[in-house]
Amino acid sequence: MKHVVDGKLYTMKDAPATTLEERIQRLEDIEAIKSIMYNYTRCTDNLDAEGIAAMFTETGTFCSPALGNPTGRKAIAELYSKLLPGTKSSTHLIANQQIWFKTNDNAVMHCYLHAWQTFEDYPKKPDCFTYGRYEVEVVREGDGEWRVQNFKIVMAGQLGGGKCCDHFARPWPPAPDQES
């Protein structure tokens, strides 16, 4: 990730990866972390609450100003089991993924989202277009898999949903476990 200090752009210092093996492992970790968000978008669009919950650690937290802060896979699955029914079709797109390694087993990912949803009771409930970003803290667990510890949706705006402007005054680097 990049950040600005005294008007100049700098690369944020990641946890060290100096040997060739460590550098290759970092590249593999980056791809594994990105794939978590690909899984999230696919499961969301397939209305798969259990698949979404599976990407979290046992103590993982989902945070959305509009939806609350459920903690743990079971609570997150219950939230999505309530959110997804009634959705007729959806498409979630992510872009501009940036990953910063706090340690070799803990990283923060920042990416942008554009989502569209249409609902079973359209036009009574209008289509919803969402713009914003995800701030996601991931950890490598004992089995070697990366999973989400903290997941925050930060809304820039919604058409058909009414949510906007969560993104102002957010800390940098992203801190997904802190409220703005």
TrEMBL record:
Origin: domain of life: Bacteria
Alphabetized InterPro entries for the sequence: NTF2-like_dom_sf (IPR032710), SnoaL-like (IPR037401), Steroid_delta5-4_isomerase (IPR011944)
Organism: Christensenella massiliensis
Name of the featured protein: Nuclear transport factor 2 family protein
Residue stretches making up the SnoaL-like domain: 25-151
SUPFAM superfamilies reported for this sequence: NTF2-like (SSF54427)
CDD domains: NTF2_like
First and last residue of the signal peptide: none
Segments crossing the lipid bilayer: none
